[in-house]
Amino acid sequence: MKLEIIQKFLITNKIFLITLFIFLIFGPLVSLPFIIYGICNDKENFNFYLFFISIFLGYIAYNFEPLIVDDLFRHYESMNHLSQLNIFEAIFKDMNILNNLIFYILGKFNIERLYPVIGTIITYYLGLLSITKVLKKSNFSNLQIILIIILSLVLWPFRLVTSGIRNFVVISIIVYWFFAREEKLLQASSILIIVACFFIHAYTIIFVFFYCCYKFIPKKYYVNVFIVFILSILIFDLIGPYLVNIPIIGYYISKFLAYRNAPLDYDFFSFIYIVGRIFFLIFTLFYAIYTKKVSKQFILLIGITIISLILNSRTFSERNMVFVAIVTFLLLIKNMNISIKIKKINTLILLTCILFFSALNYPTIRNYPLNQPICKICNTGLIQIIFFD
């Protein structure tokens, strides 16, 4: 009885949240049991605990040292370069205007290491928020909710998120806004978000194209659109080099051609990384067929997968298949509440998926001394970062 009174007091008076925030500032690892407890017992503040998880991952990102082949290493060099220009030259260096502004500010104040922190927090928080709408309408047990959260985190490969920050921030925004919230494309807020994403990363145009096909083209025309798209790519490969000097449009054309013409440096691990996500899509499709809840989104995801393979570009394939896996995951947990018979094995399915994607992600971190950032987080808090780093 006394325990119940204490629990109610902690939750209703917000002391629990304040205590958790203090622990998160001074000793991030200490906060983890409190976060898990809050997720299971405080549904009213569920989103706060998801944000705390994202902050925890941000601490790890702060201590993450990129290799010379990583995008993050190149981003640090860009920040240093842009900070030496005047603000207008820096911002309008290319079409990534918003990203250039961020680079300029971080480089000017010598706080470059906040870049992976901000990107990691945004990506994982929006990724976690994407599942809240589903969880609020479901009857998942506390164990299943914890497993769903873990699977949601594992689906975003940490090393790739901290390295290819811009791309994953854009993916998380699009997935959250258009697939989780299901906002309309042509409303003012959606247009502003798309424009902002364009100014962060040119790859936005690929996701917007796929989404427009999904929303505005009837199913009966999908095959025709698919054929036209493939033919357009082949024609574009021929005429694209002659269009790169066109203002604004030429920038995006040059980026597309760079991805298309990049060397096909597939190795075994890259192949498994992509095939594993295709297998996840197939499994979820069969699950949906069994529960008789086959969404139109499956057609979109299958189309993206086929196009990614036909384009024969490692960059396109890896980025598109992360997007496919995230949206597939949303469809999976939406369907998990349908059949009573399947409900009994949902926990096993979730646990298997966690182990499966953990194994798929291992090659992305096999060359990194991850023990270093994980150990550092034991004694790195916000106070340490601000005053002593």
Concise synopsis of the structure shown:
With 389 residues, the protein is mainly α. The chain has one domain (22-222, 267-388).
Tell me what you see in this structure.
The chain has 389 residues and is mainly α. It has one domain (22-222, 267-388). The chain has 23 helices and no strands. The chain has helices spanning 2-12, 15-26, 28-41, 46-62, 71-82, 87-91, 97-108, 114-129, 132-136, 142-154, 158-163, 165-180, 188-198, 204-216, 222-239, 249-260, 268-291, 297-311, 314-335, 340-343, 346-365, 371-376, 382-388. α8 runs parallel beside α12 (165-180) and α12 packs antiparallel against α13 (188-198). The longest helix has 24 residues, at 268-291. The radius of gyration is 22 Å and the shape is globular. The model is unreliable at 382-388 (pLDDT under 50).
Provide key terms for this protein.
389 residues, mainly alpha, 23 helices, disordered C terminus
Q: SS-based structural class? A: mainly alpha
Radius of gyration: 22 Å
Low-confidence stretches: 382-388
Helix content: over 70%
Number of distinct beta strands: 0
Round the mean pLDDT to the nearest integer and report it. Answer: 80
N-to-C order of helices and strands = HHHHHHHHHHHHHHHHHHHHHHH
Number of domains: 1
